[in-house]
Design a protein that fits this description.
This protein has 207 residues and is α+β, with helices and mostly antiparallel strands. The protein has a domain of 124 residues: NADH Oxidase (3-Layer(aba) Sandwich). It has seven helices and five strands. Strands 1, 2, 3, 4 and 5 form a five-stranded antiparallel beta sheet that branches. Helix 3 packs across helix 4. It is globular.
C-alpha cells in the first residue's frame, strides 16, 4: 500500500452513510409507544433472533450481566395486579382512574419483556456501571433487530419497578434489578422526535 511522505497510511475511501444499508437501518430506527403497537407481535423465531442480537453486546469477562423475562399474554392480568399494588403502596389514596391507568399498561404491547441487570457475582474489573452499559448495548441491539424485522419497539420504565414487591413477584435473586420493559409489536402511527446532530453530541478535550 502506498504511504504518504509523513509515513501515515493513506486514508481508505469510505462510502457515504446513506450508502450503507446497515447504517441506514440504524439511523431510521425510532421508538414506537406501546399505545401504538398492534398485533401481530414477533413469533418465537423472530424473538429468538432479537435475543441473539442482544447477546452480541459487549460483555467484559463474559459475566452475562443481564437477562430478559418474557411476560406472555396469559400473565398480563397478574402484571396488572402488580402495577395496582405498586401504585397503592406509594399512594394509598390513588383514585379509581389512576388505578385503571396503572393496570391498563400491562395489556398494551403484543410482546413484553422485562430487562434485568445482574450485579452478581462481583468482579473487581467489572463494576456495576459496566454491567449497566452492557445491558444498554443489549437493549439497543434488540431494538435494532426488532426494527430490522419490521416491528416497532420501545423501552419503558416506571415507579413500579422500584417497589420491593415487584422484584419479589418476579423471584429476582439478590443482586438482580429490574431496569425497564421492552414492548414490541407491529407499529401503528409513530411520532418521531427531532434528533441531535453530530456537532451537538461531540466535544474535543483540550488539556
Amino acid at each position: 500500500m502506498a504511504r504518504e511522505s509523513s509515513g501515515k497510511r493513506e486514508r481508505q475511501e469510505r462510502p457515504d452513510a446513506d450508502a450503507v444499508p446497515d447504517l441506514t437501518l440504524i439511523l431510521s430506527r425510532h421508538s414506537v409507544s406501546p399505545k401504538r403497537l398492534r398485533d401481530p407481535g414477533p413469533d418465537d423465531t423472530q424473538l429468538a433472533s432479537m435475543l441473539e442480537a442482544a447477546g452480541a453486546a459487549p460483555d467484559h469477562e463474559l459475566l452475562q450481566p443481564w437477562r430478559f423475562v418474557r411476560i406472555p399474554l396469559r400473565a398480563r392480568g397478574a402484571l396488572a395486579e402488580l402495577f395496582e399494588r405498586a401504585l397503592l403502596a406509594r399512594d394509598p389514596q390513588a383514585s379509581a382512574q389512576d388505578i385503571e391507568r396503572a393496570r391498563e399498561k400491562a395489556f398494551r404491547a403484543p410482546e413484553l419483556l422485562l430487562a434485568i441487570a445482574r450485579l452478581v457475582p462481583e468482579h473487581p474489573d467489572v463494576p456495576a456501571r459496566e454491567r449497566y452499559v452492557s445491558l444498554g448495548c443489549a437493549l439497543m441491539n434488540l431494538l435494532l433487530a426488532a426494527h430490522a424485522l419490521g416491528f416497532g419497539a420501545m423501552l419503558t420504565g416506571g415507579k413500579a419497578l422500584l417497589w420491593d414487591g415487584f422484584a419479589s413477584a418476579f423471584a429476582l435473586a439478590d443482586g438482580e434489578e429490574p431496569v425497564c420493559f421492552v414492548s414490541i409489536g407491529t407499529p401503528g402511527t409513530a411520532r418521531r422526535r427531532a434528533r441531535p446532530g453530530a456537532a451537538e453530541l461531540l466535544t474535543t478535550w483540550v488539556p
